[in-house]
Specification:
Oligomer: heterodimer
Largest interface: A-B, 47 and 51 residues
CATH architecture of chain A: Orthogonal Bundle
Shape of chain B: globular
Helix content of chain B: over 70%
Order of helices and strands of chain A: HHHHHHHHHHH
Number of helices of chain A: 11
Strand content of chain B: under 5%
Low-confidence stretches of chain B: none
Number of helices of chain B: 12
CATH superfamily of chain A: MetI-like
Largest sheet of chain B: none
Number of strands of chain B: 0
Distance between the termini of chain A: 21 Å
Distance between the termini of chain B: 8 Å
Strand content of chain A: under 5%
CATH class of chain A: Mainly Alpha
Number of strands of chain A: 0
Number of domains of chain A: 1
Helix content of chain A: over 70%
CATH topology of chain A: MetI-like fold
Mean pLDDT of chain B: 81
Radius of gyration of chain B: 24 Å
């Protein structure tokens, strides 16, 4: 059975995929989907409860929450995808260097990775943003760098394991140069694991961006970011709970979607890892 | 055992030195001048020069690093820029609150997660198992700052059972601790389920059952003891997550701990305080990992002997 067929038999994973597609469409078609301009303020209608005009209510400035949630999917996906690329490229580069060249380079890189992994989740990204300053670009960089050590470790582990594999030894014995062995024999074997990691990374990246923006250190107003929307709503939580809670639902659904797809891909691509 | 502890503690030293190095280097690589950033555009030249000297920024990086580490050994973390109080005192004021919060969350995560995981594994594919697995999926996907706000709306605003925020009594601790614990509950129950399922499939469990050992005994004596090793590793890792999550939870619930102090330090551009806070978090993480490694020895006699 192909990996795709196995994936399709997993109903939860399919649900996740549908949610991811919805998210992608909402990001791509935001100007056509959003019922109102996400930046349009209407102070007399501030904190309007969900109803006919504002399907999900209006926020502290009378802006349409539904439209802002739709536009917010752009920020979430943009930061997610770009930071994933940073993590993958950085991790692939460092991981193959460490695994393939070995020696003191490997030792230095892996100690560095261990030190970075010693930073608890969020704290490393928080420290980086503290240094770089807030904003979409800096948030993306911070989230991306946060992902580099883990990818480095995964790639290095696979390279080390594959380097000893018989077919790699055979290719080298036949005179393939190191770079060709890497490209033709080692990288293709790392890719399935990386796809799974990248999908689950998207879930964490969206959570991390939301968290940084919630703290006021990520995406800055007036950009519609889900984390920022929750943060704005927090100030009026006790008088208008919908302002903070509705955007949070969007974060949860987006994260859930990527988690479901990631779990499904892991089970489908590597049936040996099948677990809980 | 003692040599094992000492050796592990010594191994932590280069990691902490590395953390200090990374933090100092990032501050050094700041775009623009840190001091101007801290004092604002309109600061006088004298003020800038004075702060530069106070921070030691007029010296080369290596000298500053050695200097900082040297003072660190004596427990001197410098003075915070904003409050002009010793950083060590500010950290000492804040860390008990964070410790209280994370320990409470860890206990909740361990208790609820392990029990739910065991029940799921003993009756796999039951209704409870299905609900628990679905709940853990949601637990892993909810941003905790949002969970905290939703819990405030339900338990403080609607039901009026618990306070909105602040610290001081047990009722203040409930909502933050539960909020912080939820993602870990999900992770722990998932891990416990698969660990117990794995162990229940082992030969020695079949042998025990074949001997006619009762199911409760099989579970308690054979299955759980072996399943606890991966669970413990996870709990150690989770405490790192909890410290990160504490930053968010403390912000949501106005909990006077290290996480909130750290966010304040970032906003105030107080890099001396920030450096100290990051260091305390890293130290805590190292200590927790040490404790986890030590407990392996207690659970599995094979570990630590060769240590």
């Amino acid at each position: 059975m192909t990996a795709w067929a196995r994936f399709c038999r997993n109903r939860l994973a399919l649900l996740g995929l549908v949610l991811v597609v919805v998210l992608a469409l909402s990001a791509a078609l935001a100007p056509w989907l959003a019922p109102l301009d996400p930046a349009r303020q209407s102070l007399i209608e501030k904190r309007t409860r969900p109803g006919a005009k504002y399907l999900l209510g209006a926020d502290e400035f009378g802006r349409d929450i539904l439209s802002r949630v739709i536009y917010g999917s752009r920020v979430a996906l943009l930061v997610g995808v770009l930071s994933m690329l940073i993590a993958l490229v950085g991790g692939l580069l460092l991981g193959t260097l460490a695994g393939f060249i070995g020696g003191w380079l490997d030792a230095v890189l892996m100690r560095g990775v261990e030190i970075l992994l010693a930073f608890p989740y969020l704290l490393l990204a928080l420290a980086i943003v503290a240094m770089l300053g807030p904003g979409v670009l800096n948030t993306t960089i911070a989230v991306g760098i946060w992902g580099v050590p883990a990818v480095t470790r995964i790639v290095r582990g696979s390279v080390l394991a594959l380097r000893e594999a018989e077919y790699v030894g055979a290719a080298r014995a036949l005179g393939s140069p190191g770079a060709a062995v890497l490209r033709r024999h080692i990288l293709p074997n790392i890719i399935p694991g990386l796809i799974v990691y990248a999908t689950l990374f998207m879930a964490n990246a969206i959570l991390l961006e939301a968290a940084l923006s919630f703290l006021g250190l990520g995406v800055q107003p007036p950009t519609a970011s889900w984390g920022l929307m929750v943060s704005t709503g927090r100030d009026v939580l006790l008088v208008a709970p919908h302002v903070a809670t509705v955007p949070g639902l969007a974060i949860m659904l987006a994260v859930l979607a990527f988690n479901l797809v990631g779990d499904g891909l892991r089970d489908a691509l590597d049936p040996r890892l099948r677990g809980g | 055992m003692l040599t094992f502890v000492v050796r592990r503690l010594l191994l932590a030293v280069p990691v902490l030195l590395g953390v200090v190095f990374v933090v100092m280097l990032t501050i050094d690589l700041l775009p623009g001048d840190a001091v101007t950033l801290m004092l604002g555009e309109h600061a006088t030249k004298d003020a800038v020069a004075a702060l530069r000297e106070h921070l030691g920024l007029d010296k080369p990086f290596a000298a500053r690093y050695v200097d900082y580490v040297g003072r660190l050994v004596r427990g001197d973390l410098g003075r915070s820029i904003q409050q002009n109080r010793p950083v060590a005192v500010e950290l000492a004021d804040a860390w008990p609150a964070t410790l209280e919060l994370t320990v409470a969350a860890l206990l909740i995560a361990a208790a609820v997660g392990i029990v739910a995981g065991i029940v799921s594994a003993v009756w796999p594919n039951s209704v409870f198992d299905a609900i628990a697995r679905l709940a853990s999926l949601f637990g892993l996907s909810m941003p905790i700052f949002w969970t905290g706000l939703v819990l405030i709306v339900v338990f403080s605003l609607w039901l009026n059972w618990l306070p909105v925020g602040g610290a001081g009594s047990l009722s203040h601790l409930v909502l933050p601790a539960v909020t912080l614990a939820l993602p870990s509950v999900a992770m722990v129950s998932r891990m416990t389920r698969s660990a117990v399922l794995d162990v229940l499939g082992e030969d020695y469990v079949r042998t025990a059952r074949a001997k006619g050992v009762g199911e409760a005994w099989v579970l308690g004596k054979h299955a759980l003891r072996n399943a606890f090793i991966p669970i413990l590793t996870l709990l150690g890792l989770q405490s790192g997550q909890l410290m990160g999550g504490a930053v968010l939870t403390e912000t949501v619930f106005a909990w006077p701990g290290l996480g909130r102090l750290m966010v304040k330090a970032i906003f105030a551009r107080d890099y001396v305080l920030l450096q100290g806070a990051v260091l305390v978090f890293a130290l805590a993480f190292v200590v927790i990992n040490l404790l986890v490694d030590l407990s392996y020895g207690l659970l599995d006699p094979r570990v630590g002997r060769q240590g």
